[in-house]
Write a structure and sequence with these properties.
The complex is a heterodimer of chains A (126) and B (286).
Chain A (H helix, E strand, L loop, with lengths): L1 E5 L3 H13 L3 E5 L2 H11 L3 E6 L8 H9 L8 E6 L4 H10 L3 E4 L4 H17 L1
Chain B lengths: L2 E6 L3 H11 L4 E6 L1 H7 L5 E5 L7 H8 L10 E5 L4 H5 L9 E4 L4 H12 L12 H19 L4 E8 L3 E2 L3 E9 L1 E9 L1 H12 L8 H23 L6 E3 L3 E4 L3 E2 L8 E8 L2 E11 L4
Parallel strand pairs in B: 1-2, 1-3, 3-4, 4-5
Antiparallel strand pairs in B: 6-13, 7-12, 8-9, 8-10, 8-11, 9-14, 13-14
Helix pairs in contact in B: 6-8, 7-8
The chains are: A alpha/beta (126), B alpha/beta (286).
């Protein structure tokens, strides 16, 4: 079971990796949307959760989310937005596009772990 | 309405500042010597006469300036420093200067005086230190450092600066666009930036790389702006933002909008000072 973190910030990817490592899970990292879709193509069946930033160069997180939900191979993978876009309109847009969970930056390590566990619970039920 | 303004005897730096401020009033600026201005003062709607601190002949020089045909009706505003204020005030009156501007020139003062003298207004009034659009940046900064780095910080001061120049070592900056436009920046000294990034990454001091610092500062800026954006959504100050850019090496300028002051929010983070700079103006195209 793997978690894919998609964020153009290496700082955020390293923070996420630390939390996921502590949970004993495998982590895959992508710095942009195109790289994320490539990793999904290569590792799709093993990825249970995608943590997705919103503002990235190239494809936005919302673009990646829509691409995933439009692809039968990836549409059931649980997506949690992990973004500084805390505006309620963005939250609604992401949930409408198929995101199952949403965590806004800033966050502390405990909240991140809790939200990942919550999202994995959703993934287990899917 | 276009106004013609003579800048008389202005030193180069003061001329640049005045030109920048007056451009927002659709003014055409003419830098002139005293002699040149005295010959054709009647051609202008307004004259700003720079009076040096050490000058003693201000009354005579003013009379000479206004001696030409039609020149008496042209308002002359003296521009001087705080040191020269007293001498300049003495020649304000019916036969002298109509008013006085003290350097450094402040946009809101220039705005008020131009409105009174010529009935012109700046296209977009410069922002004041309005809590409605500054508080979200303060709160966002405090919350971001607390949650991401476990670091407490408090606001220590609030001031206005005429440009985005600063003495920091590393800045994260983002462009803002929406109902308001401008930029926001967070400015650190290198030691604090390194401390913050080490705490965020939970690594020991000295293990961080320069790239870690760049990325960490950019991400902090991104998160602070995101928090403020959410608070200001659905208000007259709402905005979207660009991806963060990071500037390394000081002193440097993070951004500037001509004639618009930058609100500088000073913070103390466990003994280290840093600043958040916010520059926002209404977007008339939105």
């Amino acid at each position: 079971m793997a978690i894919l973190t998609v964020d153009d910030s290496t700082t955020i990817r390293r923070i996420v990796k630390r939390s996921v490592d502590e949970m004993g899970l495998e982590i895959l990292e992508a710095a942009d949307g195109a790289q994320a879709l490539k990793l999904l193509e290569e590792n799709g069946p093993s990825i249970q959760l995608v943590l997705l930033d919103w503002n990235m160069p190239g494809m936005s997180g919302l673009d990646v989310l829509r691409a995933m939900k439009a692809d039968a191979r990836f549409k059931d993978i649980v997506v949690m937005m992990l973004t500084s876009e805390a505006d309620q309109n963005c939250v609604v847009d992401a949930l409408k596009a198929g995101a199952q969970n949403y965590l806004t930056k800033p966050f502390d390590g405990k909240m991140l772990t809790l939200k990942i566990q919550e999202s994995l619970g959703l993934a287990a039920k899917a | 309405m276009s106004i013609e303004v003579a800048l008389v005897d202005f030193p180069r730096i003061q001329e640049q500042i005045a030109t920048r401020l007056l451009a927002d009033y659709n003014a055409t600026v003419h830098p002139l010597t005293h002699g040149e201005a005295a010959e054709r003062l009647s051609m202008f709607n307004l004259a700003l006469y720079f009076w040096p601190d050490s000058g003693r002949e201000v009354a005579q020089r003013l009379r000479a300036l206004k001696s030409g045909e039609g020149a008496q009706s042209v308002p002359v505003v003296l521009v001087t420093s705080e040191v020269g204020r007293r001498a300049a005030e003495a020649v304000i009156g019916p036969d002298g200067a109509v008013d006085l501007l003290v350097t450094p020139l402040q946009p809101h003062v220039v705005s008020r005086k131009l409105a009174a003298l010529l009935g012109v207004k700046r296209d977009t009034e410069p922002p004041r230190m309005d809590a409605a659009h500054i508080t979200p940046f303060v709160d966002g900064t405090v919350d971001t450092l607390k949650q991401m780095a476990g670091m407490s910080c408090t606001r220590t001061n609030l001031s206005l600066r005429m440009d985005g120049h600063n003495r920091g070592d590393i800045s994260g900056t983002m462009g803002l666009l929406g109902k308001t436009e401008g930029f926001v920046a967070v400015v650190f000294r290198e030691a604090l930036a390194r401390k913050l990034v080490c705490r965020m990454l939970q690594i020991n001091p000295g293990e961080e790389t320069d790239e870690d610092i760049r990325d960490g500062v950019g991400e902090l800026m991104n998160i602070i702006a995101g928090a403020a954006k959410a608070e200001l959504a659905n208000t007259e100050h709402s905005f979207s933002f660009s991806l963060p850019a990071v500037i390394v090496g000081g002193p440097h300028t993070v951004g500037q909008i001509r004639g618009v002051p930058v609100v500088v929010i000073a913070f103390d983070a466990e003994g280290d000072a840093f600043e958040v700079m916010v520059c926002m103006v209404p977007n008339r195209r939105a």
